[in-house]
Design brief:
heterodimer, A: 219 residues, Rieske Iron-sulfur Protein, 3-stranded antiparallel beta sheet, 7 helices, disordered N terminus, B: 428 residues, mainly alpha, Cytochrome Bc1 Complex, Chain C, two-stranded antiparallel sheet, 16 helices, 4 strands
Chain lengths: 219, 428
Amino acid sequence: MGNPDSHGTQHGSCGTGCGNSAPQKTSCGAEKEECHDESKRDFIFISAASMAVVGAGVTAWPFVATLGPAKDTLALSTTEVDLSHIQEGQAVTVMWRGKPVFIRRRTASDIELARKVDEDASTFNALRDKQKDDERVKQSTFGGKAMPQWLVMVGVCTHLGCVPMGQKPTDMHGDFAGWFCPCHGSHYDSAGRIRKGPAPHNLAVPSYTFLSENRIKIG
Amino acid sequence: MANPNAPLTDFGNPVINWIDRRLPIFTMMQKEYGVFPTPRNFNYLWNFGAIAMVMLMVMIVSGLVLAMHYTADTNLSFNAVERIMRDVDYGWLVRYIHMNGASMFFIAVYVHIFRGLYYGSYKQPRELLWILGVLILLLMMATAFMGYVLPWGQMSFWGATVITNLFSAIPLVGDTIVTWLWGGFSVDNPTLTRFFALHFLMPFVILGVVFLHIAALHVSGSNNPLGIEPKSDKDTVPFSPYYTVKDLFGLCVFLIIYAVFVFYMPNYMGHPDNYTPANPMVTPPHIVPEWYFLPFYAILRSFTIDIVIPFTDIIVISSKLGGVLLMFGSIAVMFVLPWLDTSPVRSARFRPLYQKFFWVHLAVCIALGFLGAKPPEGLYTIASQVCTFLYFAHFLIVLPLLTKYEKTLPLPPSIHEAILADRCTKQP
């Protein structure tokens, strides 16, 4: 450990003199001064520096923490949606936490297409983010009745956060009858699973509950 | 400085002499910009450092005025910018100066960088000078990105979304970091206000690093087109008036081109989508960054496969993380350039092979810029991958090999002798 204090180094040089019956006055610099143990100095420097680091961290923390989500932002974390007007094959986009959430009432053929993937081992194993269709819609239940027609996902591409196309019938749906992200070309299937392109994960499923058969609370 | 009785420069003005004796800024200016010995053989490519400095000043002054009229709020920002354009006297002029100024600043800096590459200005003893320069480029990119978010148009919003999402590629803590960067669960008001604060701060950080960049330059002295150090007084001229005048002339030409953009085609380098207010529910079909980011954007998108441990499903580097690593790597490789190319000959004039590879490299960078503006499909993806490979191959394969095997041409004995020899051969 470097010693910036020249006074200290002088004492360091007299380390050998410590304990001698005749103290070496000259190298100690000051008369009758006690010789210091260098390792004690090190301990003081290291503990002082550690305290300074801890202090700096404690001081910096509030500044870093101010940049996180504030309480009002966190308070807006649930959204309720009425689904009664959505016909089979239709989809709506609602805002939740500043992000679009896709709610699609899937047709029987949409579901069948997605479940075919689950049954075929080679296709299923080729999925980048392996999830079965019933896992994707496992929260879509009310009163013990499964409602796999309701697919609810955060409509944000898991690549770099664009909103994929595919909510409107006239949109591009990609190669797998689901969604297509035009930014970097990610294709999602009818269960919102990533099938082709750069995105690493399936479209995220938020936590949600059905309050009745036609009402959903997201968040 | 320590001795107040030391003979100081006589500036012929008692007030200046009085100040200079107490704070020798005039002596310093005289030493660093007046009589400063500078190689006598600069060509016009050596204008661009001074031009970049002027652009930084233009951006700070125009930005300061804009900030006085701007409001950082998702409900107000778009209209605040439109108000500057329509209602504030000469607001349109100041905004177009600022908007096009960013592009012109990048043009000046890119020319400055490629000049450094061609003439080997990054080599010993100018490594730290070069590294500070790359740092300035990084800071400029961050500043330009955050500035582009402020008008809160569609491209602002989606550009911010895509770029901040790059950090979600970091394993384990990525999503937490992105939430922290946003101050929420999406790009929103907290993001806009912090970007404004940082966009205001960063130019002054850049100014500080530019000061260090110039301080380092004045220790090593400038490189020159021959890439050999000046050996005597015959090889140099005083900075003023020779290069103050030459820089001013180059600056005037540059400002004329800048003015053509500002007055006749102010939106040529922008995107019409950014005149649509930000809408978090609809992504524009083609998100394209500003032109000066296009090569890096092409590199980002070129990585399309996951790297997995063979015979397992464990993804070591996802295509997303890979793209992000490549993009940051394309800048990071510039930091270590002085140690990748250790050939003692600086200037490409005396390196016949390096000269060829330099032009290939420039062409690759321009091609990447072109590809960055195209949709990521089919042939464009393959071309981006080839160009990305060539970009990195230039630094990591070509330069170390050239250092070892290239046969360089003999260097002239000194700058003035080279100039005289050149003149004798040209005269009949």
